[in-house]
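RECORD TYPE: inverse folding
INPUT: structure tokens
STRUCTURE:
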């Protein structure tokens, strides 16, 4: 089965949105981890810049 141009475009859009949502979730997870770490110990300059 071959996909039409519109079907390929829709599949690409779904893939891009899924990729963006995964990246957002990864970033949010890292930020939450750094905030928790900051409660217990001073953060390095690199970690401070990441927040």
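DESIGNED SEQUENCE:
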């Amino acid at each position: 089965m071959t996909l039409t141009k519109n079907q390929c475009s829709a599949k690409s859009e779904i893939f891009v949105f899924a990729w963006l949502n995964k990246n957002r979730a990864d970033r949010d997870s890292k930020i939450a981890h750094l905030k928790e770490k900051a409660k217990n110990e001073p953060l390095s300059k690199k970690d401070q810049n990441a927040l």
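NOTES: The chain has a mean pLDDT of 83.
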